[in-house]
């Protein structure tokens, strides 16, 4: 099929406002916007100013009003418990209204913040939608984060209420959430008025009613029985729908704000044009609602489009084996699957010849989309061979909320180039600049930036931190949003994303800050200084690796100190940090001005070519680092390139 991509991208370039005004017709507005784009509002302008709408209305009520209430909306499939439930749009309305009624009874209204700290259960999605229905702002915290991370988010968002569950289920272990929640609330400066706790059969949590704990199941059941109706509260298109905290360069996460209007318009556009999914079809994003992929493509986009979404609790491998994705695709007639490359690396490791794949009927599957980290060509080609459908790498970030570059199946696929995320999506004027801000020639590596304004659906700012947003993202390259990704655009316009330019790493598709891990390592009383870098890992893409210099006269056992530090990171950040490798070194390599040469250490560890930095203070330290890496089994490159 001939791709309409170029024509559609041109259409957007010719008249961005007309393009988005057309896309906005897919959304129900209580009051249509006065202006498609208002450059005078917000940090870089605002989309759909003056419009009034409601995201929950568009995800549920609108479909029911169109007579589609009995169609499948959400399929909950837990391999961890064996539960499977299918909700129609009508069923979902009942659930969401009941939760919204409970929230309203607890005093939650428009603009209030609600933290959702839950495993992958249907109730988590309903809770997000219930917040949206009331005009409240949700902030979902990934279950793999520890109490301190949760406390930081409660404080920063000044949450009025927390919705949580008694436990999450990880392979081989039940993760009690309630003790983490209680610790977080004890630590937090801001005390939420109440905590709604969903009791799961695998573990009942003792509730502290005197502290405002409420049994989620009982409270919601009471409203369900009463049949309480909760109307959708009209909100401004520019009002926040959610805050999603993501790793920044320090331990203080950045609260990405997504609005209601622009977010809906953009996501509805992507379902049809990027993913090629129609109303009534099943779309499955095998991610977690704690991440942006989960927000956009487990919850909002499929429901806005009137498709069915899958909420899957389990892992791609080991629950019970690497065939579980194929079982879910076959059983629920999934048309398009979206996941992180790491999931496919795990499946390939366990079933290299695809023996388990061929036992399933995957004839309904039309495409696989990968994102969250660079899709290595080997994994991508393997997936193509095994699934016999197009495999699309597309590039985006928590900040953008949807794909900056991709290959739009709905417009007709472009010829793919391995290693490239293909072309910029409409709305995104992607350029590559050198460090001084000058455009580079096609094919030259540089800083990937997006010309302002960002399209609808991208972040509008950081929560109550406009200046942080400006200084982190907009000031280095005036007139542009800095993606903090390095890469190139080739002579055909294909975008290649190679690496982050900051200290964010991608571990098993999870975005982590090595800066935050350094802050935790530095808390240990024996540590004088430290550097955490991401080193290449065959399964997870990257894993963190800590280099620690101990204080003088510390004579304790190094193995014991290392273990304490690993435990400390797990306790402070959470298991998701996957921080297991610690190397105790005498000194860290630095420039003469004292900057730690993390980039050079990383290249050495990954066995890549590296140059001796001209400003290095003492080159001998790199020899010591090389030795330690080799002792730890890294096939590192210890020899600098000749200048
Ligand atoms: N709640 C509590 N703990 C969690 C958790 C959660 N929601 N998610 C992960 N963890 C824990 C894991 O149990 C593990 O703990 P352990 O150290 O005790 O083993 C730790 O955090 C690291 O988890 P993870 O990085 O996910 O590694 P894994 O070895 O458990 O699984 C993969 C590896 C590749 C199978 C898995 O990471 C995966 O499915 N990745 C896909 C990621 C994804 O969908 N990303 C979203 C972007 S699209
Ligand atoms: P997150 O905010 O968790 O979605 O992580 C965003 C970061 O993941 C990006 O800035 C990239 O560094 C990386 N990333 C996501 N998708 C891709 C991709 N398709 N190719 C390369 N890197 C990617």
UniProtKB/TrEMBL annotation:
Domain Acetyl-coenzyme A synthetase N-terminal residue range list: 5-59
Recorded family membership: Belongs to the ATP-dependent AMP-binding enzyme family.
UniProt signal peptide: none
Molecular function in Gene Ontology: metal ion binding; propionate-CoA ligase activity
Protein name per its UniProtKB record: Propionyl-CoA synthetase
PANTHER family, A to Z: ACYL-COA SYNTHETASE, ACYL-COA SYNTHETASE SHORT-CHAIN FAMILY MEMBER 3, MITOCHONDRIAL
Keywords for the protein's UniProt record, in alphabetical order: Metal-binding
Gene3D superfamilies tied to this protein: 3.30.300.30, N-terminal domain of ligase-like
Domain spans labelled AMP-dependent synthetase/ligase: 65-452
InterPro entries: ACAS_N, AMP-bd_C, AMP-bd_C_sf, AMP-binding_CS, AMP-dep_synth/lig_dom, ANL_N_sf
Organism whose genome encodes this protein: Rhizobium straminoryzae
Domain AMP-binding enzyme C-terminal: 517-595
């Amino acid at each position: 099929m001939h791709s309409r991509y170029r024509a559609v991208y041109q259409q957007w370039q010719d008249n961005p406002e007309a393009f988005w005004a057309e896309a906005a017709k897919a959304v129900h507005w209580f009051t249509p916007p006065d202006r498609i784009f208002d450059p005078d509002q917000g940090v870089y302008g605002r989309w759909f100013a003056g419009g009034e709408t409601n995201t929950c209305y568009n995800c549920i009520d609108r479909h029911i009003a169109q007579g589609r209430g009995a169609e499948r909306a959400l399929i909950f499939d837990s391999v961890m418990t064996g539960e499977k439930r299918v909700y129609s749009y009508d069923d979902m309305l009942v659930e969401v209204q009941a939760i919204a009624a409970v929230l309203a009874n607890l005093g939650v209204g428009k603009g209030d913040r609600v933290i959702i700290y839950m495993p992958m259960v249907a109730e988590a999605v309903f809770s997000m939608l219930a917040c949206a229905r009331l005009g409240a702002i949700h902030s979902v915290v990934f279950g793999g984060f520890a109490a301190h991370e949760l406390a930081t988010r409660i404080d920063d968002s000044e949450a009025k209420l927390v919705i949580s569950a008694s436990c999450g289920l990880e392979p081989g272990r039940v993760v009690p959430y309630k003790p983490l929640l209680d610790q977080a609330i004890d630590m937090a400066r801001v005390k939420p008025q109440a905590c709604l706790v969903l009791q799961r059969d695998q573990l009942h949590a003792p509730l502290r009613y005197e502290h405002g704990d409420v049994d989620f199941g009982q409270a919601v059941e009471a409203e369900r029985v009463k049949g309480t109706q909760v109307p959708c509260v009209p909100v401004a298109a520019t009002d926040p729908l959610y805050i999603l905290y993501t790793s920044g360069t320090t331990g203080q996460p950045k609260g990405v704000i997504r609005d209601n209007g622009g977010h809906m318009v953009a996501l509805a556009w992507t379902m049809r044009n990027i993913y090629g999914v129609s109303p009534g079809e099943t779309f499955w994003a095998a991610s977690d609602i704690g991440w942006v992929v989960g927000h956009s493509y487990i919850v909002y986009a499929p429901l806005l489009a009137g498709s069915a979404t899958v909420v899957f609790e389990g892992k791609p491998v080991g629950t019970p084996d690497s065939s579980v994705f194929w079982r879910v695709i076959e059983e629920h007639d999934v048309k398009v699957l979206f996941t992180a490359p790491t999931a496919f690396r795990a499946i390939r490791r366990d079933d290299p010849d695809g023996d388990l794949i061929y036992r399933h009927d995957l004839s309904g599957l039309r495409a696989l989309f990968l994102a969250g980290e660079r899709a290595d060509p080997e994994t991508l080609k393997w997936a193509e061979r095994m699934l016999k459908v197009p495999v699309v790498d597309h590039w985006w970030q928590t900040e953008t909320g949807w794909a900056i570059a991709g290959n739009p199946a709905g417009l007709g696929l472009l010829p793919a180039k391995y290693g490239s995320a293909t072309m910029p999506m409409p709305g995104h004027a992607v350029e590559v600049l050198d460090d001084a801000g000058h455009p580079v020639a096609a094919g030259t590596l540089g800083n990937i930036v997006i010309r302002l304004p960002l399209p609808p659906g991208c972040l509008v700012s950081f929560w109550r931190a406009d200046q942080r947003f400006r200084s982190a993202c907009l000031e280095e390259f005036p007139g542009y949003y800095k993606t903090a990704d390095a890469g190139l655009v080739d002579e055909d316009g294909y975008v290649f994303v190679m690496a982050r330019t900051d200290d964010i790493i991608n571990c098993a598709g999870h975005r982590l800050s090595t800066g935050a891990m350094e802050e935790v390592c530095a808390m240990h009383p024996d540590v004088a200084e430290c550097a955490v870098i991401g080193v290449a890992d065959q399964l997870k893409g990257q894993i963190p690796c800590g280099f620690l210099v101990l204080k003088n006269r510390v004579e304790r056992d190094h193995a014991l100190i290392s273990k304490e530090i690993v435990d400390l990171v797990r306790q402070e950040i959470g298991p998701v940090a996957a921080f297991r490798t610690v190397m105790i070194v005498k000194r860290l390599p630095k420039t003469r001005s004292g900057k730690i040469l993390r980039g050079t250490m990383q290249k050495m560890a990954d066995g890549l070519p590296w140059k001796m930095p001209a400003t290095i203070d003492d080159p001998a330290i790199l020899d010591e680092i090389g030795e330690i890496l080799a002792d730890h089994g890294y096939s590192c490159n210890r020899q600098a390139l000749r200048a």
